Amino acid sequence: MSEWISKGQLKRLQTLYGQLTAHTFEPATREARIAWACELVGRPIASFKDLTAPEAKQLIDTVQAQLGIPETQRPKRRRPRLDRDAAQKAGTEGRRGFESNQDTMAGEAEWARIRYALDKLGWNQQQLDAWLASPHSPLKKSNPKIVTLGDANRVWWALKRMIDSRGRAK
After folding, report:
1. What is the pTM of this model?
2. Which domain holds residue 41?
3. 109 shares its domain with 64
4. Beta bridge partner(s), residue 4
5. Mean per-residue pLDDT for 146-160?
């Protein structure tokens, strides 16, 4: 069987169902809520906790569409949690005073974080490259390229400081 409904999905579904009943003037009773869910998932359930994660997603998407909540305002999935070693590397590689006996290559998550920062600053790739080649670059190299996790972290932390100083964090 599929994974069961998460706490976040349960909370979101209950909140959205309450908003739906307020808009449609339907009764907000537990029995009405369960009957509604049974009808949409096509099987009997005794509680929202009996839903699988895909069924909960289907119900959440249905309610959000009925309420007219645009896709851009819907909660985003959180990124997967890093394992202990990856989390330590993500937090320490590239810091001053931290020496590692092996380098980790920068991955898609690091590039996505840097692209996010560039979007916040309104920069394009050429502006990033020019900044990396400038004396203000966090990569003190003759040929500055983001290759390792340490490089990506140094660039991210510098870009994050720029975003914060310009008041564009939110």
Report:
1. 0.51
2. 7-73
3. no
4. 52
5. 90
